[in-house]
Amino acid sequence: MGKAKFKPVDDVKPEEVEKVEEVEEQRDAGEVAEEEEEEEKDKSFEELGLDPRLIRALSKKGIEKPTPIQQTAIPYILEGKDVVARAKTGSGKTLAYLLPLLQKLFSDSGRKKKPAPCAFVLVPSRELCQQVYSEVSWLIELCRVQLKAVQLTSSMPVSDMRNALAGLPEILVTTPACIPKCFADGVLDPAAISESLEILVLDEADLLLSYGYEDNLRSVTSIVPRRCQCLLMSATTSSDVEKLKKLILHNPVVLTLQEGSDKEEPVPSNVQQFWISCSAQDKLLHILALLKLEVVQKKVLIFINTIDMGFKLKLFLEKFGIKTAILNGELPQNSRLHILEQFNAGLFDYLIATDDNNQTKEKEEVKGDDNKESKKNKRRFKPKLDAEFGVVRGIDFKKVHTVINYDMPQSVTGYIHRIGRTGRAYSSGSSVSLVSPGEMEGFEEIKSFLAGEEDKDSDIITPFPLLTENAVESLRYRAEDVAKSVTKISIRESRAQDLRNEIINSEKLKSHFEANPRDLDLLKHDKLLSKTAPSPHLRDIPEYLVDAKTQEASKMVKLARAAMGNNRRSGGGGNSKKKRSRKGGDPLKTFNANGSKRGRGGGGVGQKKDGKGSSDGLANKKHKTV
Ligand SMILES: Nc1ncnc2c1ncn2[C@@H]1O[C@H](COP(=O)(O)OP(=O)(O)OP(=O)(O)O)[C@@H](O)[C@H]1O
Predict the structure, then answer these.
(1) What is the model's pTM?
(2) What's the CATH class of domain 45-256?
(3) Which residues line ligand 1 (CB under 6 A)?
(4) Is residue 451 exposed (0-12), middle (13-18) or buried (19+ Cβ within 10 Å)?
C-alpha cells in the first residue's frame, strides 16, 4: 500500500499533529529507516480499540492488519466524531466505517428495538448496496451478535420492503433514491427515523451527487437528528463532496491521504498505468494484440463507452477464440449481480463493462442511426437502462490484474474510478489506455491532473512497453478482415438476443437458484454469441507471425501468472513484506527485453513519448517505485 499517511485536516488533536511532524522530520534527516518507520506507524486492530469479536471475524476472512485509512478513521469514528475520509480506490474504506459502526451497535444490542434502523448506509448504486450488505452480513454472522441488516433498492416491490423492515433491522443499506420512495409508500416513517437514527454513512460520496441524488439527499438530511454521527467516505475530492460535507456534517474531522510527500495521488501506487496511441479504427487491432499475444495479465476488465461497442468487441474477440462476458446497465439486476459474482469467483477472465455515465451518448447514437434494419430492430428492442446501475463505482472486483480503457473515460474522476478496480487493498495491478487522436485532449487532462501542479512533466502514465509495432502489424490483416464481418446489424441482433436471454434466465431462474444456490455455477456468462465456432486460423495465432520480443514478453507474463498462482495464499489480508514483494514478479514492472537491469526513473530513452509501442523502449522502461 505504499507509505500512506493520513493527516487530519480539521479538528486535529495537537499531539497527533506533532507525531506526524516528528516522523516527517526524522525522515527528512534520513534518521528513520523505511522499515522501522513502517513498524512505528502501523497499528493493529487491537490497538485501535476494536472489539475482539470483530477482530476474530476479520481474522477468519484473512484480514489481519488495518489499512492506513482504517488505522486513522476507526479511532475517530469510535470516539463519535463526524468524519470525512478521502482515500484511494481499494484502500479499505468500507471496513473503515463498518467496523466501528458495528462496534457501536454491539453495545446497544439486547436493548429494546428502535422503531426504525439506527444506522443508514447510503451508496450510489444497487451493485454497491449488495456489496456493502454482504460485507456487513458476514461480519454480523461471524461475530454472532443479535443485529440485523437489510438492503432496500427502489426496484423492490413494496411488500418485499415491508417484509425486510418487519424484523426491525438496526442497519439499512440503500440508495438515496430509495428513501423518499419508502416514505411515499409508507414503508419508512420520517418521524421514526428522526427518533432512531444514530449513524449515517454516505459511501462513495464523490459520486452521490453526480448520480443525481441531490434532491433525495436533501429530503433525507431534513430528518437527520442533530445528535446523529455522520460519515462521508470518498475516493476523490470534488465540489460535490464539499457540498455534501456542508449539507450533512457538523464540524467533522477531515482525513486526507498523504503518500510519501505532500502530493496527493488518487490512484494507488501499486497500479502501473500505461497507454498506447492508436487511431480509433486500430483499437480492435490493438486490443486483439494485447489479449491474443497475452502481454497483459489476467483477469482483465475492459471499459467501453457504449453498449453497442461492447457487443462489437465481444463478437470480434469471439472470432479469435477469446471468450468475454458483458456487463451493462440494461441487463436485469439478477444477471448483473451474477456476472459480478462469477467474475469475482474466477469463472472467466475477460469482462467488458460499460460506464454508467454514458447513457445519454448511447441514446443519442440510437437516435442518429437511420439504417432501416436498425430501425426495425429498435422498434422491437428498446434499451431500458437502470438509473441505479454502477459498474465502476466502488465495486470490489476481485483479483483484476489489468484494466483496459478501450474507450477513454469522459472525465478524470471516471478514469480514477476505472483504474481503481485493480490494485485493490494490498494487491498490484496495471492499466492500459488505448488513446486515439480524438481522445488526446482528455488524456492530457488526466495526465496533468495525476501529475499534479508541481510535477507537470512527470510521466505517471507511460507508454506500454510489451507490444512491438511488428507484433501489432502481424495481426492487422486478420483483424481488419474480421472487423468487417462484425456489422451494425449483427451487433444489434446480438445485443437484443443477449438481453432476451438474460431476462428469461433472470426471471425463470430466480426462484430456482434461491432453492438451489449451487446451480448458479452452471450458468456461464462468457458464452459465445455467434453461432459458428472461431476458425482455427484465427483462434491460434501461428508463432511465425509474432516477433521474438513479443513472444518473450508473453512468456514472462505467463510465468508471472504461474508464479502468482503458486504463491497464492489463503485470505486477502495481511500486508507482510513478502506479500508486497510479489509485485516484483510482475513483468510489467520487471520485464526487460534486452536482459539488462532497468534503472530507476530512467524515463524511457528510446521509448517513444507518444505511447506507440517501441521495442527499443523496453530496456529503458521507466520503473515506478511501489
Ligand atoms: N485491512 C485489510 N487487509 C486486507 N484486505 C482488506 C483490508 N481491508 C479491506 N480489505 C479488502 O480490500 C478490498 C477493497 O476494499 P474496499 O472495497 O473497502 O475499498 P474502497 O476504499 O472502498 O475502494 P473504492 O473507493 O474503489 O470503493 C476489499 O476486497 C476488502 O475486503
Answers:
(1) 0.68
(2) alpha beta
(3) 63, 65-67, 70, 87, 89-95, 235, 394, 396, 420, 424-426, 572-573
(4) middle
